[in-house]
Design goal:
9 helices; 67% helix; 280 residues; mainly alpha; single chain
């Protein structure tokens, strides 16, 4: 008796509305994070800089909610929603373990592996929901939270966009995921710096945002700000993500793929022609 072939794991697919909503929230997020470099020095936007965290926070919360609702309606069934809840709860529980000390945040490796198995669309929603749940758990609710949700959504989505999801396995896949986790951990920290850096312009500092300066000057100031304030945390986050991915990645990936196959998110409902129901 021959063994049954293992059914490959397919990522959760999104419909056109979900993709459009995801593109919209990402576009607004790029503006929300990057406005200091997009607005000219004489723009009136700089005069309302102190209002930006709350304005963008409210808008991003609404857009992330739209994305989650749309994906749930068109791409995620009850089993996928249950998987989303379990993984979000696990990620939220992992975040307080390091309490952000020296960048020790073990939730990032779980987000990388989950995005790899379940795809970019599921990954975006998972990253956003996980960050929201962990903020409620740790008391980290504030105007920065929507920015964290969006950045973590991008972080997890990126893992789902990596090449070879159906072919690459074993050590090679773990090396790929580790390299992505290392680089994306720095990217996450850099993006999150943009959420607070523009509002330091009232400080007399050579690394603070200068509303009346040009793009090149502010880019140099921002780079100096990142090196001076967050490099150590970003390095710790990247190192922890790499170590956990290389040591625990294989069994976690296996468990995620087994759970996804058993859940059969996209399995069609069929009735066998045995006289008890219609034929599919």
């Amino acid at each position: 008796m021959s063994a049954r072939p293992v059914r490959p794991v397919r990522p959760v697919r999104l419909g056109p509305r979900s993709l459009a909503a995801l593109a919209l929230v990402s576009a607004v997020g790029v503006v929300g994070f990057g406005w200091p470099f997009l607005a000219p020095p004489d723009s009136g936007l700089n005069a309302h800089a102190q209002d930006a965290p709350w304005l963008f926070a409210g808008l991003l919360v609404l857009l992330v909610a739209v994305v989650a609702a749309t994906i749930s309606e068109s791409g995620l069934g009850p089993k996928a929603v249950a998987m989303l809840g379990v993984l979000a709860a696990a990620g939220a529980a992992l975040r307080p373990l390091g309490a952000g000390t020296a960048g020790i945040e073990p939730m990032f490796f779980l987000m990388v592996l989950s995005g790899r198995v379940l795809g970019p669309g599921f990954g975006f929603v998972l990253g956003s929901v996980t960050m929201f749940a962990s903020a409620l758990l740790t008391g980290g609710v504030g105007p920065w939270m929507p920015f964290q949700m969006l950045a973590m959504g991008w972080f997890t989505m990126g893992a789902g966009l990596l090449p070879g999801p159906g072919r690459l396995r074993g050590r090679s896949e773990l090396v790929l995921l580790s390299a992505y986790g290392f680089l994306a951990a720095f990217a996450y920290g850099t993006v999150m710096n943009l959420a607070g850096w523009p509002f330091l312009h009232q400080l007399a500092s050579s690394v603070a945002f200068a509303p009346d300066a040009g793009l090149g000057t502010n880019l140099a100031r921002f780079l100096a700000y990142c090196l001076a304030t967050s490099l150590g945390w970003d390095l710790g986050r990247a190192a922890v993500t790499v170590v956990l991915t290389l040591t625990l990645g294989a069994p976690v990936l296996k468990a995620l793929r087994r759970a996804t196959r058993r859940a059969a998110f996209e399995a069609p409902v069929a009735f066998e022609p045995n006289g008890r129901g219609p034929e599919a």
